[in-house]
Amino acid sequence: MTHPEMNELYELYLLGTLEPELASEIDSHVVDRCEYCGERLREAALVVAAMSGMAEQVDPPKHLRERVLASVRPRKQSTSWIYAVGGLVAACVILFAYTLWSANTARSLREEISALSQERDQLRSAVEVLSRPDTRMVQFGKQNAANGRVFLSSNGGVVFAGSQLPQLASDKTFQLWLIPGKGAPRSAGLFRANAQGAFVNVVPGPLNLTQIQAVAVSVEPRQGSPAPTTTPILVVSIG
Amino acid sequence: MISDRSEAELVEKLRNGDPDGLAAAYDRYGRVVYSLFLRITHDQSAAEDLVQELFLRLWNRRREFDATRGALGAWLLSIARNMAIDHLRSAQARFQSKLRPIDQTDTLRFSYKPSEPANVMDNVKAVQDALAELKPNHRKVLELAYFEGYSQSEIAARLEEPLGTVKSWMRAALERVRTAVKGGGNK
């Protein structure tokens, strides 16, 4: 088929209404990038587009314009979804923080209860020592230095209380020692003074007072020592 | 500049991703494409869906248009016609689509030369005027091809006319339309 013979076929080709054998002939020209056919098809495309004028013109519904424009706007749902995920993440973070805080608070409360229970037991033991008829009291120290009293009961134990002990570094503690006439000193507990230097240490349980010559206080590492590692800062003779 | 100023500005806005460009395109071509969809599908709901899909396609391919070529309107109308015929054939499952894959082709096919009338809406109007002068049979074959997608053989069978007669009517109808488009409606 020659180009002039094809002139009347380009619109039908674009409309898809050309017989298959004729359409495939134009196809081959298109594939070969035939300049003549390219130009005729450009003209035919404009003719085919203008044929839409054969349709009776009808006004589209008013809402259609907004619908079309809305379809290219960013979707609110997507934004809401992002906010929802953001909110969920924030809620998770808050929940995690609350759980952590609760766990810390619970642990802190448990530690506080444990400390209070320990203090209560000490006071109970102290009251028991002080109320026994066999309890002996030894006073020690001077007004402007570490001073206090030692209460000793063969059945109740030892109460060591006083004031004006120096403040210690956080990794140190006071350790009370029972010094026998013979043998090594025996640990009688760890204690710290409060901000004013006051202190109470209770050693409950029966004691063989005849074997104890003195009580002493040394500064030891925080976890205590099996035997004094420093020179005692206080020695109270009870003999 | 080949196309008129407002069309060039419209295309420029579209290319820049400005939704006002799409709004302007709808204001300019929404009525003609809706009318086309309605004429082919005879279904208002389907016509609205197709209008939305058409402008979405335009938005997605907006960077392919050249503001100086005046191709936008012709492209929209050609794509619209193919979409509507595809919709019709899909709905009727009548036969496989024989349409040229026009929306896959380069948008440069839809362009005007400096010597040509640049506004596709002028061409549409010219075709409308030319239709009034077409013989009923000539107009009928053109409508069956354009709105229904029938081949000339199918038209001949449908009208119970010889294929040669149908081809002759089609040739005459297309020649009148071509002349109208090239002359901007002037005989």
Features:
heterodimer; A: 239 residues; alpha+beta; Immunoglobulin-like; 4-stranded antiparallel beta sheet; 8 strands; B: 187 residues; mainly alpha; Rna Polymerase Sigma Factor, Chain: A; Arc Repressor Mutant, subunit A; 2 domains; 67% helix
Layout of secondary structure:
The complex is a heterodimer of chains A (239) and B (187).
Chain A: H1 3-6, H2 10-15, H3 20-31, H4 35-50, H5 62-70, H6 76-131, E1 136-141, E2 147-153, E3 157-163, E4 172-180, E5 186-191, E6 199-204, E7 212-221, E8 234-237
Antiparallel strand pairs in A: 1-2, 2-3, 3-6, 4-5, 4-7, 7-8
Chain B: H1 5-15, H2 19-41, H3 44-60, H4 72-92, H5 120-131, H6 136-148, H7 152-159, H8 163-182
Task: Give your account of this protein's structure.
The complex is a heterodimer of chains A (239) and B (187). Chain A is an alpha+beta fold. Among the domains of chain A are: 3-67; 136-237, Immunoglobulin-like (Sandwich), CATH 2.60.40. In chain A, 43% of the residues lie in helices and 23% in strands. Chain A is built from six helices and eight strands. Chain A has helices at 3-6, 10-15, 20-31, 35-50, 62-70, 76-131, and strands at 136-141, 147-153, 157-163, 172-180, 186-191, 199-204, 212-221, 234-237. In chain A, the strands form two sheets. Chain A has a four-stranded antiparallel beta sheet with strand order 1-2-3-6, with helices on one face. In chain A, strands 5-4-7-8 form a four-stranded antiparallel beta sheet, with no helix packed on it. Chain A starts with a helix and ends with a strand. In chain B, helix 2 runs antiparallel to helix 3 (44-60), helix 2 crosses helix 4 (72-92) and helix 7 crosses helix 8. Chain B is 67% helix and 0% strand. The longest helix of chain B has 23 residues, at 19-41. Chain B has two domains: 1-112, Orthogonal Bundle (Rna Polymerase Sigma Factor, Chain: A); 119-187, Winged helix-like DNA-binding domain superfamily/Winged helix DNA-binding domain (Arc Repressor Mutant, subunit A, Orthogonal Bundle). Chain B has eight helices and no strands. Chain B is an all-alpha fold. The model of chain B is unreliable at 93-97 (pLDDT under 50). The chains are: A alpha+beta (239), B mainly alpha (187).
